[in-house]
Amino acid sequence: MSKQELVVLGQDGADGCCPGLLTTPLGEERAVELAKVFKALGDPVRLRLLSMIASREGGEVCVCDLTPAFDLSQPTISHHLKLLRQAGLIDCERRGTWVYYWLLPETTDKLAGLLTRPGQPAEASS
Amino acid sequence: MSKQELVVLGQDGADGCCPGLLTTPLGEERAVELAKVFKALGDPVRLRLLSMIASREGGEVCVCDLTPAFDLSQPTISHHLKLLRQAGLIDCERRGTWVYYWLLPETTDKLAGLLTRPGQPAEASS
DNA sequence: CCTCTATGTTGACGAACTTCGAAGCAGGAT
DNA sequence: ATCCTGCTTCGAAGTTCGTCAACATAGAGG
């Protein structure tokens, strides 16, 4: 299932290794890589999907719990989930009849780190 | 100059007022608003522009310093800068012959906060 | 085996995006 | 006023994206 070519956000982010977006000019290859992840977040449907998955109590959501929240066909939801998966933001597994999705926090952590300025702790909101 | 309809990232983010992306399901309107900002970041050219602007010593960059870094026409760079500006990520001002751009850190701070999980400080990288 | 349900994949189409050249505008210099 | 330079806006071409209907697949249960 999770045999998609993921976007791997190289060395960086929360582990405090490599330059953040806001401190050092971004190289072209790295920009391309990063843009894929941000592009995945650049759609309202995908943002809501990610949010629904991330905020789920047990950490896992079945597709059948996601689809009814939208006025979209199931294939469209499936398509958006695939893009989020390819961006390395979520992963999934089939369990019997259903497929469960969960957040990959490393990726969001790295994005948050990249967008954080040196002096700014940027504690989680709420 | 800065009379663009900015995307205003409502109440949220670093000020710890409203739910982060990862803790509470996102409302539709808010998702649309947020998606515009992420979409602005979803292009390699714009990411590099933002990075170049943000990491500049004095905090300001002239367009003429940005353009040579790309294999793109000046109108194209101008277009991307406009999108970043409409997303509320940067602003600009004309001074004599040149136009200077600078980062609006409130917006990146808010994004970082939204992507940060409750337990995770997400200190700036590098 | 066959059928039913839950998901993913394919192909197609309109909308949106990226890019360019050409034209427009604002200021400084002549 | 006239020209030149720096930048933005306009209009068009090519590409990518979001969406759906139709089809394919995986597993459960007869």
TrEMBL record, chains A, B:
Keywords: DNA-binding, Transcription, Transcription regulation. It comes from the Bacteria. One of its GO terms (molecular function) is DNA-binding transcription factor activity. PROSITE patterns: HTH_ARSR_1, HTH_ARSR_2. The keyword DNA-binding applies. SUPFAM superfamilies: Winged helix' DNA-binding domain. InterPro entries: ArsR-like_HTH, ArsR_HTH, HTH_ArsR_DNA-bd_dom, HTH_MetalResp_TranReg, WH-like_DNA-bd_sf, WH_DNA-bd_sf. This is Transcriptional regulator. It comes from Streptomyces parvulus.
